[in-house]
Amino acid sequence: MTLLTYLRRKLGLTGTKLGCAEGGCGACTVMLSRFQTHTQHHYAVNACLAPLCSLHLVAVTTVEGIGSVARKLHPVQERIAKAHGSQCGFCTPGIVMSMYALLRNNPTPKMADMEEAFQGNLCRCTGYRPILEGYKTFTVVRQIYKHTVKTHSCQNTHSHCIFFFLQDGGCCGGRGRENGCCMTNGSGEATALFSTTDFAPFDPTQEVIFPPELMRSRSLCFRGDRATWLQPDTLEEILRLKWKHPDARVVVGNTEVGIEVKFKNMVYPVILAPSFIPELNSVTHTEDGVVFGAACTLSHMGAVLRQAVETLPPHQTEVFLAVLEQLRWFAGQQIRNVAAVGGNIMTASPISDLNPVFMAAGCKLTLMDKDGSRVVQMDDSFFTGYRRTVLRPQEILVSIEIPYSQKTQFVSAFKQSPRREDDISIVTAAMSVTFTPGSNVVEDLRLSYGGMAATTVLAKRTANRLRGRCWGEELLQEACSTLAEEMTLDPSVPGGMVTYRRTLTLSLFYKFYLTVLQKLRQQGVNVEEVKSDCVSATELYHPQTPSSVQIYQAVPKGRSQDDVLGRPMMHLSAMKQATGEAVYCDDVPLYENELYLSLITSSKAHARIISVDTSAAERLPGVVCFVFADDILGSNATGPVVYDESVLADGQVTCVGHIIGAVVADTQLHAQRAAKAVKIQYEELQPVVTIQEAIAAQSFYQPIRTIQKGDPEAGFKQADHVLEGEMHIGGQEHFYLETNATLAVPRGEDGEMELFVSTQSASKTQSLVAKALGVPANRVVVRVKRMGGGFGGKESRTTVLSTVVAVAANKYRPVRCMLDRDEDMLITGGRHPFYGKYKVGFLNSGKVMALDVSYYSNAGNSMDLSLSVMERALFHMENSYNVANVRGQGFLCRTNLPSNTAFRGFGGPQGMMISESWITDVAQSLGKAAEEVRRLNLYMEGDSTPYNQILDQFTLDRCWDECLSRSEYQQRRAAIDLYNRQNRWTKRGLAIVPTKFGISFTAVFLNQAGALVHIYTDGSVLLTHGGTEMGQGLHTKMVQIASRVLGIPYSKIHISETSTNTVPNTSPTAASASSDLNGAAVQNACEILMKRLEPYKNKNPKGSWEDWVKSAYFDRVSLSANGFYKTPDLGYDFDSNSGRVFNYFSYGVACSEVEIDCLTGAHKNLSTTIVMDVGHSLNPAIDIGQVEGAFMQGLGLFTLEELHYSPRGVLLTRGPGSYKIPAFGDIPTTLTVSLLRDAPNDKAIFASKAVGEPPLFLASSVFFAIKDAISAARAESGIKGPFRLDSPASAERIRNACTDRFTKLCPPAEPGSFTPWSVQV
Q1: Which of 395, 977, 1149, 1312 is the most buried (most CB within 10 A)?
Q2: Which amino acids does the record list as binding [2Fe-2S] cluster 1 (predicted)?
């Protein structure tokens, strides 16, 4: 049992969350405290991996233990809440505990300490910036940052206004000048989203003490039903036990074995835990180096080596620095705190970060069994095969000696991974060279690589050729050509990226070559000087502390403080989320007779089911029953629009992850074990997996949509130039931190059932559950308190789970299921991959005359919402550009993948991405600046879209001009051009990109909303509406609206939940329209009530709100009202290309600057400036949070996140270990977000605009800045003009596009000559 299961299921402490079960997201972070070597140690760990039996003599502190809303919040909890760093809140307790653990060890941390502490934590909502801003207030350095804004002047002076920003996250509060600055005097702009003066002081002396009774040690034995845990406390005892149990696994941090048991179904009958054995935890300094006991954690090893680097002569610490460089990026802090150096070695991973360093340095390992010890060197003979070493079964690794380096020895280590922080390597390398003293003649050379074979390998052939040679250009050429021959990979190798990996072996050696040249010259050796334009290739990455500016329109002077509309009000649940008291679906207390469900899913993409054998599963403990299609009393047909899916597969499966049945058992563990024991026989059928396969097979859903305006053929004839291009945009996993969860409770009469569901679509869940149960919808109540993120992923696909759970509950008792991360990713689908082909005609000026574009989306094995997604892509095919003659077609590819679905932007980003591709191609083909071509083609007020909607209240031009100004675009461009002339191997790029996003459901009937408002006799108000809360602050905005209309403080208003028995027939919380729709419905209900109260206000004008309410009640006036709203004048017809598609448009512009490493493909996000039109913001803090969160999600979509599928349709990326969303370190170093001033929108509630989806596409500015940088790199090789760059712009794609002499040595295998590991779907 893990600590997480014990906390949540045994103790009922649900503040600690399950996000991934593999230690990759940090949602389950708790603090452990242990008394060791006479001192206390506090460290953050992943509770999902920590075995309960490993915690003997350990104090566990959870988020509930440090503060609560009722008692008192700890400053760590308070500051993340008040700084707006908690949106959906599911990740918040883990982030709180990471920060808390840091402060327990270091009450005055530096920013670098804080950033390191968060390397193991993920957030999908906030964009990270507000979390860092809130927690900067704990850091010791309080530098003042200045940001000069050149667009307006202060009230009292004619000089430009300077905003002052402290590192503590607040602003100067007007203290920057005697007379204040524009945020407090009359310019109408505000920048502070919170005030640090509201924070409680932090007193580190008031923390809980370590329990004295835990200051001891002894050996232990725990016996479970499948394993025995032995915890010896002496070296002799563990050697005796290992001799007795040679197959036993030795476990310290459980970071590897925990994954194997959970995800690979491994069973280890005996586990040895050596954490308390002194010899295995010791650190000894010898004449030759530092000896670490094998159980020393990576964090401890890092601390010891850092101390050594500070005290020893530099020439002795080359190996130590290489180890430390790898440790910087080794997993997250929570993993490093428990993972042991010995475990890292003995795991024998072929992509280990540290083993190449140990091998290149020739580290010595001491092995021991009960008969004696031996010392072996880590060389190419240590790893005997995949995950195998030379250790005999009875031996254990006792210690590793990391040697001092010699005076003429130079060592470097490299790691290249998709994401810098907390990521597994693609290729890792360590290189050590020793020279004959006083010369550049190579005496010894070791080149060690991970990720290039089934084991960590030494490039011995290359090293042998280079020994005795002089370190110079000739050696470099010889090394590269030999490495290219020696470091080969089978084209079908697991992990793919063959060309990239092979190129990296050369690129990394080149970096080493240049670094060594520099060090030789520093020692006075006569070698060639590294050219100034190559120096940047030798620089190690050191992140800069991010800084940010947020600008919004201040509320008018004189407005009552009780009127919170337009103010940066904190999310109403932020405090509860920060303390772990906010209740999510799986936090609902267990029912006494509750059962747990686990799904049985298909392992084949397309097959007939021959048989299902449950006999082995039936014999397992705790199993109660199985659920299959025959158990469905109602209809097995389901689907959000078309009933083309089944609740449970019946005879045939059409994707890997297709739900065939379910196991119901007494616990989650028993249910999951039984589900894995069910044996299914298939008759496989040929699957269609990719868009290209679907096109070849003409496998499309109907209809094929077309929008045409003008005469494209005539437009092409008028054009001076015509070019054609294509682009593929990869899919995206929602990665909401809270996976899909449902609790179904049968009520025992009339077929009634109550469901607690994490869903954006309560009413759709209600109707589909009722359909499956064979009862009317009025017997089913669906309740949604909050979601830990949704992003569209919980709009329609939640019913895949909730219908199955309801069917099972209808059969027996209350049934619960929360999917594990790997299940959720496998089953629920994601953003549609798109392939676009375009033909564009344009004049010499860059003006686009004609466009013909075809979109192909990978819809998956059912229609789901794919038609609406494609329609929105077509409605955004021109993005923000006026094209007189345009034709767009959309094809829905029917494939054997899990059905893809809604995702923030809903097809809009894919449609606009293709348009930005062709506008970039136009600029590159003409040799013009991209921003000039974009500006030339931008829409203007009164222009008509391809679907004949006139653009009014047009603000995009204002956004564009403000973004150019705030980003200082022209100065940046000049500086980048200079930088690129001065640097060969790093290049910078810049791009400014607009967006125009239509607001409304394209299905007209969904543009409606209801609300229900009760006023109680004490004056308190209960508000219910049709929208659901998933972190976007919808409930907070609804309370603000009600507060304004009712004229009462927001503290009197409460929203409990969303439920189908209060507001019926609700539309999904989606399409960015929920504030518009539900806000208007709330306004309507409140205005009805205010009209009823008006006579009592008139009678008693000096009375209080409570007086008026009581008077109305005693006068028998109803204090409850239903509100309703429908968006007027909507409706579009594809056949005639007429009607009004959208109620209005949201506009925005972003400018981003990046730097790429041309040798590795890595990139840095240097700066982003965003100007967003959100009308009159209802809540600037929430709206800026939505802008930043959407931007970061788009950053993942366009630069980082990749779903890998096998050619047979198997998803290969099923968790944070293999699928990487942006982390804290991915935010732009400088981030400015400005909400456009004086832009009221008369088509939505209180002149506001939608904000959830529109900003996401602005992250494409990073993609096109990368493309701009790649263009500069290609120009160095004499390559100019348009080129194809698919999305995401991963490190692999960036490197491969930067063609140079190294890439030419590693040509790709001929397509069709091999079966690839993964395919582009």
Answers
A1: 1149
A2: 20, 25, 28, 48
Q: Which amino acid is at 1273?
A: A
Tally the C-alpha atoms within 13 A of residue 955's C-alpha that lie toward its C-beta: 24
Which residue in the list 1155, 1253, 1276, 1292 is annotated as catalytic? 1253
Per-residue 3-state assignment (H helix, E strand, C coil) for 1174-1216: CECCCCHHHHHHHHHHHHHHHHHHHHCCCCCECCCCCECCCCC
Which residues does residue 598 pair with via DSSP β-bridges, in sequence order?
Answer: 663
The model's pLDDT over 530-554, given as tens digits with 9 standing for 90+, comes to: 999 999 999 999 889 899 999 999 9
DSSP state, 335? H
Token pair of 1235 as six digits: 């909400």
330 is in an annotated binding site: yes
> In 3D, which of 571, 465, 545, 542 has the Cα closest to residue 509?
465
Check the annotation: does 858 bind a ligand. Answer: no
- Is 1253 designated active site? yes
Across the strands, what pairs with 144?
166
- Look at residue 212 in the predicted model and tell me its pLDDT: 82
Residue range 456-513, pLDDT digits in tens = 999 999 999 999 999 999 999 999 999 999 999 999 999 999 999 999 999 999 999 9
Distance CA 1244, CA 1188 (A): 22
Which pLDDT tens digit goes with each residue over 587-620?
999 999 999 999 999 999 999 999 999 999 999 9
Buried b (16+ CB within 10 A) or exposed e, 225-244: eebbbbbbeebebbbebbee
Tens-digit pLDDT profile for residues 137-190: 999 764 333 333 333 333 332 222 223 233 333 333 333 433 334 344 345 788
Provide the pLDDT for residue 263.
Answer: 87
CB-based burial, 368-400: b 16+ in 10 Å, e otherwise: bbeeeeeebebbeebbeeeeebebeebbbbbbb
Q: Which region holds residue 968: left if phi is over 0, alpha if psi is between -120 and 50, else beta?
A: left
- The H or E element spanning position 113 is helix 111-117
Q: What value does the mean pLDDT of the chain take?
A: 94
CB 490 within 8 A of CB 412: no
Please check if 511 is assigned to a binding site. Answer: no
Report how far residue 549's alpha carbon sits from residue 1170's, in angstroms, rounded to the nearest whole number.
10
Q: Cα separation of 551 and 1252, whole Å?
A: 18
Q: Residue 141 has what pLDDT?
A: 61
Q: Is 294 annotated as a binding residue?
A: no
Asked whether residue 253 is marked as a ligand-binding residue, the answer is: yes
Query: Which whole-number Å values give the CA distances from 529 to 587, 669, 1300, in the listed order?
Result: 63, 62, 21
Q: Bin 125: left if φ > 0, else alpha if -120 < ψ < 50, else beta.
A: alpha
